[in-house]
Amino acid sequence: MAITYYFNFQSFIFPLLLVLLSTHSSATSTSITDRFTQCLNNKADPAFPISEQLYTPGHSSFPPVLQAYIRNLRFNESTTPKPILIITALHPSHIQAAVVCAKTHRLLMKTRSGGHDYEGLSYVTNSNQPFFVVDMFNLRSINVSIKHETAWIQAGATLGEVYYRIAEKSNSHAFPAGVCPTVGVGGHISGGGYGNLMRKYGLTVDNVVDAQLIDVNGKLLNRKSMGEDLFWAITGGGGVSFGVVVAYKIKLVRVPTTVTVFYVQRTSEQNLSTIAHRWIRVADKLDNNLFLRMTFNVINNSNGEKTILGLFPTLYLGNSTALVTLLNKDFPELGIQISDCIEMSWIESVLFYTNFSIGTPTTALLSRTPQTLNPFKIKSDYVKNPISKKGFESIFEKMKELENQMLGFSPYGGRMSKISEFAKPFPHRSGNTTKIQYVVNWDELGVEAANRYLNFTRVMYDYMTPFVSKNPREAFLNYRDLDIGFNGHGKNSYVEGMVYGHKYFKETNYKRLTMVKTRVDPTNFFRNEQSIPTQLS
């Protein structure tokens, strides 16, 4: 009996091809890494060897080094693209070598200061190009001069460390920056950071007087050598589009030795919609020494029903008596009493605002461990016209329909309204009463859970369309949001950049940023999915 053998060519060759391609890809990646590493060792300053600062995926410390500054667990999945190398720079020469060698070997460079980019763009890419990360956390020196009321701060320092070092030398000086102490200075300042002193002193970038930047040629520049256009661009336009910011020189501001804080709560059952409507009419017009936020969360009441909890965390640069008098006159609906207020030093108010218990030692600000760590999504909006009481009631109902919704309102006005929208790339000045931050946190890991909660955020954002700015619908660069635009850096990159660029910077500032980009980085070496493109595309 004859036996016929059937040979399935496809079932044999396809798996073989996959194995060969995978092996080739791995070998190619390894060879690229080897050549890149060799270049780094050759180009680095011999006085500052770089070899001990290099971590490849095969290194036992690679996972902990990579994960140490991942602040959004949405980007800590097994499927998340990983860098071929991490450079934990100890000296500017390490960054200079990285730029020169990355250009030679056509590698994509990511720069991470504190890891708080909300879309993970400081350590993740959505392209298929091999990439590496320059981690700045070792470059964290802070030199404070109370005599000159300035400080030089390296990009890898955290805001908490900056505040601590200022308070170490003075109880009447501060710096207007964010409330989260683990945020890295580099990204926070370059994107136009803000905080509780914004209405008194403006943004972080309104108080920056010099900078050190490594450009696309590997040169270390300061404000004078880089020129005013580039200095303008890296103070609010995102430093990673133009080079690597090594340090900023900041101007310290003066604060009273005693400030006042409170953190009151109000619920829907306590006329929250009336309070919210009044807040949005007056918060931007209150005394410049007062910063009164308003946030909304969904909670269950005593009957197990969903309701809205309003929180009003506040900082006042003055004493409690003056604060209560001021609010009873301009915002009586909130019902603030002396018993709600706590007087303390400015540095203690930083801890208070970050939800540390009263009496916590200020050394807590030196910790680089976040108080919470989970997957999240954040979006932003700007409000130009008051939202009615009925409008807030409808917003509250929509929040209750969805899951894990939090909306935060930060008041503008004060100093912010007096600075031109063209002074810095950040254009959201006069005419804006408040900025909205949409926050959705969740605990479940995995892509399926992420997609579900991302959808909740987008639904809430879409619902808010009638209440916020239009043409463009403005957004805050430091609340990075890939939903509002994405750049593939192909032949249409300039037009693609306009989509998000006009929202972050508005038309005039975006155009100026692209002009600076074209001059200082014509080949678009420094790029990410929302960077400033050149005008050559």
Automatic annotation (TrEMBL):
Domain FAD-binding PCMH-type positions: 79-255
One example GO MF annotation: oxidoreductase activity
PROSITE patterns associated with the record: FAD_PCMH
Range of residues in the leader sequence: 1-27
InterPro entries (alphabetical): BBE (IPR012951), FAD-bd_PCMH (IPR016166), FAD-bd_PCMH-like_sf (IPR036318), FAD-bd_PCMH_sub1 (IPR016167), FAD-bd_PCMH_sub2 (IPR016169), Oxid_FAD_bind_N (IPR006094)
Keyword field contains Repressor: no
Pfam family, one: BBE
Top-level taxon in the UniProt lineage: Eukaryota
Cofactor needs: FAD
Coiled coil ranges: none
Keyword set, alphabetical order: Disulfide bond, FAD, Flavoprotein, Glycoprotein, Signal
Annotated TM spans: none
Family as reported in the entry's similarity comment: Belongs to the oxygen-dependent FAD-linked oxidoreductase family.
Protein name: FAD-binding PCMH-type domain-containing protein
